[in-house]
Amino acid sequence: MKDQARIVIIGGGIAGCSIAYHLAMMGQADVILLDKGELTSGSTWHAAGLVTQFHTSPSLMRMRIYSVNLYRHLQATDLSGGAGEQGSRGAGEQGSRGNESPLRLRTPAPLLSSVPVIWHQVGSLRLASTQDHFWLLKRQVGQAKALGMDVEVISAAEALRIFPYMTDASLYGALYIPGDGHLDPSGATFELARWARAMGVQTYTGVRVTGIQLSAAGAVQRVQTDHGDIRTELVINAAGMWAPQVGAMVGVNLPMVPLVHQHLTTRPIPGYELPRDTPVLRDPYHLFYMREEGKGFLIGGFEVEPQAWSVDGVPWDFTQKLLPPDWELFEPIMEGAIRRVPILAQAEVAHLLNGPEAITPDSRPLLGPVPGLRGYWVAAGLSHTGFGAGGAIGQIMAEWIIEGEPSWPTHEFNVRRFGTIYQDRHFTTERARESYRYYYFLRYPNDENESVRPYRRSPLHTRLEALGAVFGEKNGWERVNYFDPGRPSRRAGADQKTWGWGRPPYFEQVGEEHRAVRERAALFDMTSFGKIDVRGTGALALLQKVTDNNLDKPVGSLTYTQMLNGRGGIESDLTVMRLADDTFRVITGSNFVAADLGWLIMHGPQDGSVEMQEVTDEWACIGLWGPFARHVLQAVCPDDVSNAAFPYMTARTVTIDGVEVLAQRVTYVGELGWEFYAPNEQAGRVWDGLLAAGQPYNIRPAGYKALDSLRLEKSYRYWSADITPTDNPYEAGLGFCVRLNKGEFIGREALLAAKAQGIQRKLCTLAMDGDSCVLYGGEAVYRDGRVVGRLRSGGYGYTVGKNIGLAYLPLELAAEGTPLEVEVFGERVAAEVAAEVLYDPKGEYLRN
C-alpha cells in the first residue's frame, strides 16, 4: 500500500467512488481510496437502485439530472473513450433543458473491456391516490416546470395504459417521466471505480481506518490504518453509515442515524411475468415504490414508524451484511402495494431484504469542508438521495476541492448547517426518523416538526402559553406562529391535513396581528434569532473580509450586510452590531447560525486574534414595532428614545422597567421599532413592562406568520429562498449594501465583473388578486406561455390586500406593470410586476 497521497477518500460506496472518478477526470489522480471491506460493501450493495430526475429542490433536481446523464454516459462509453461517446453526449442533452453541469470527460490511457449493463431507462410513474395528493402532484409539477423540466400530470387512464398491472381505484392522476429508470448499484459504483483506477487512483480494500492525525493547528497530516499510515493533506470522509465514527476521530459530530430500510422481491407471477422495460411505480399515499426484478416485482417503501438501528455506532465488521427481515414492519407497505396492484396477492415472496441506511435529520447529505479543521472533508449521510445524487456528489466535491468552490448551490447540503443541538443523539435520531417518515407520507408546507418537542424554550415561553400561543419550531426552538386568544396553547404539527390546500383557519388571526403592527403596536418573541459574538484585535478585519458592506463604523452602529462566496453569491444575510472597537455581534436567522459561524471560522485567522462564540442561548430577544412603538417604550424607559437621540440602524443600552437591555433600532416588518436583547433571567420583566405599557394603544403579541406577511409587503429578502449562494446582491436588489471601495473582500472580484457586464435578471415583486389563490413559493411564472421564472417566496399581504410573490425575471420583463401568469396547482393565475416595495416604498415610517 502506498504511504503517501495528496487526497485520501475513506469509503468505497457510490459517494467515494464518484468522488474518485471526478477528481481523476479533473486531472487529480494523486488519490487513494480506502474501504474496510470490499467496494460497495456498505449500504450501496443492497440499495434498490431507483433513480428519478424529478425533485422540487433546484439543487437536487439538477443533481439527479446530472447523475442520470452520468450513468447513461458510463453505459455508452468504454474506457478507450471511443465507442458510444457521441451517443452519450446526445443522451446527456435529453430532458434537462440545460440544467445539468457538463460531463468533464477525458480519455484515459488504458483500454479495458466493454461496459456491463448498469442503467435501465424504463420511465417512472408517480401516482396520486387521494385528492390532496393530486393537488400536491400538480403543485410539484408546476415547481418542476419552473426549474426547467418538461413534465405534465397525466390522467388515471393514461397511467393505466403505461402500467396495466394496477387498478385505477382512487387514482386521480400521475406524473410520467420517460427518462427515469433504475440501475445496478454495485455495477454502477464498480464502473466509476474502474474508470478512476484507469486514470491513476489507487484503491485498497480490506483496509480499515483507525485514526486521523492532525497538527497542532488542526490540519490533516496522516491517516492511520490497520495496514500502516498514509501521509496526506486532505481526507474525504465518505464512510456512509460509519461516517460519524470517522468524524469522531477528529472530534467532529456528524448527525446521521442508521435506519432500517427494507425491500421485498417476488418470484415471477405466472401469466404476469414483467418485461424488462416495466416502468418504476411510486405511490406515496400507499407508501411504496416498485420496479421489475427478474420478471417479478421489487417492492420497497417508507414506514410511518421507521426503526433506528445501532445509533451508538455501526459495528466495523458489518460488511456486506443484512439485518433479519422484519415482516411486521413491512406489512403496511405490502398491504398498500397490493391495494394498488392486486395481482401481488398471488405473488410468492423470494426474500425480504433488510439493510440499514444513514439518514440525516433533514434527509439531505452532508457535504463540504469541516470548519475549524484544515483538509477534513465530508461526503456522507446521502439519505434518500443515494444514487439519484451520487453521481453529482462526485463532481460537486471535486470542483470544491480543486477549484475552491463548486459550480452547484450547496447550502441545502453543507456539512456546517447543523449546530450543537445535534450532538444530542436522541434529538438527532428522532429528527432522522421523522424526516424518513415524511419522505412519502404527505407533509404540507405549513406542517411543523413534531418530534422531541419542546426542546428549546425561550424564557418567555410560559407567558406566551398563557396568551394562547400556537407554537411552531425552528432549529429546536419553540416559536410562536400566531396567537389564538382564549384557547389553550398548543404545539402545531401535521395540522394542514385538516384544511388541505386552501386558506388556513388561522388566516384572520394572522391578519389581526399584521394589522396591529401596521396600525398600533405589537410584541414579538424573537429569542431564537442566531447571535454570534466576534471579538479581538482581528475582529474588524475578519468581518470586513467576509462581508460586502463596510463595517468600519462608530461603536453603536448597525450594518445590514451579506457574506458572499468567491462567485459573488450570497452565503448569508446578516445584521452586524458594533459593540466596541474590537467587539461585534452578528445577528442571523434561527436556522442559519451554525452555518454562519462555520463560515466565519473557516475564514478566520489562525493567530488567535479573533474569538468567535455563539451566544444565542444567553440572550432573549423581544421585538416591538408599530406606529405607537415609541409611545409604548417611553412609558417604561427613562432614556431619550426620540428619533434624534436614537436614529434608525443604531444600537445602545437603555433601561426598560428597571432592566438594562441592548436595543437595536432595526426592523424586518417595515415599521418604527426596536429589537431588545435582555439577559434571560430578566426577559420576563421586560416583556411584562412593554405589554402593560402598550395596553392604552391596544398592543398585541404577534407571531412569525404575521412577520412573514409583513416582510413580503416590504419585499424584505429571506435567505435560502429569495437570496441564495447562486444569487448576487445586484440581481437581488441588494446592491446598496455593496461597498466595492472598502478594500478586498470575498466575492469582490466577481461583483466587479458582474457590475461591468451588467446583470441579466432582477428580483421583482409580483402582485396577484388576493382571492385568486393560495401561494406557497416555488410556483412557475409564465409570459406568453413560456416559463420565465419561479416564485422564490409567496404569501398574502393583509395591508395591500394582494397575494405577493418574489421572482427573478429577465430584465426585459422586470418593468412595473408587465403582465405575467403564475401556475398555481395547475391553473394559470394573472399576475403583474408591481412596484418593488408595495408598502411605504420610501421607508418613511420606519425612519421617523
Total strands: the figure is 40
**Regions with little confidence, pLDDT below 50 for 5+ residues:** 80-113
Strand content: 25-35%
Order of the strands making up the biggest sheet: 6-7-5-15-16-17-14-18
Mean pLDDT: 94
Count up the helices: 19
Oligomer: single chain
How far apart lie the N and C ends?
A: 72 Å
Shape: globular
Give structural notes.
The chain is an alpha+beta fold and 848 residues long. The protein contains 19 helices and 40 strands. The strands form 8 sheets. It has an 8-stranded mixed β-sheet with strand order 6-7-5-15-16-17-14-18. The protein has a 6-stranded mixed β-sheet with strand order 9-2-1-13-20-19. Helix 1 (14-25) packs parallel to helix 6. The chain is globular, with a radius of gyration of 27 Å. The N and C termini lie far apart (72 Å). Mean pLDDT is 94; it is low at 80-113.
Can you give keywords for this protein?
19 helices; alpha+beta; single chain; six-stranded mixed beta sheet; 25% helix
SSE arrangement:
Blueprint: E1 7-10, H1 14-25, E2 31-35, E3 50-51, H2 58-76, H3 85-92, E4 119-121, E5 124-128, H4 131-146, E6 153-154, H5 156-162, E7 173-177, E8 181-183, H6 185-198, E9 202-205, E10 209-214, E11 220-225, E12 228-231, E13 234-237, H7 243-248, E14 257-266, E15 280-283, E16 288-293, E17 296-301, H8 327-340, E18 349-359, E19 366-369, E20 376-380, H9 386-403, H10 425-437, H11 461-466, E21 469-474, E22 477-483, E23 490-491, H12 507-519, E24 522-525, E25 530-535, H13 539-546, E26 558-564, E27 570-580, E28 583-588, H14 593-603, E29 611-614, E30 619-625, H15 629-636, E31 651-656, E32 659-664, E33 673-679, H16 680-693, E34 700-701, H17 704-713, H18 748-757, E35 761-769, E36 780-783, E37 786-797, E38 802-810, E39 819-824, E40 827-833, H19 844-847
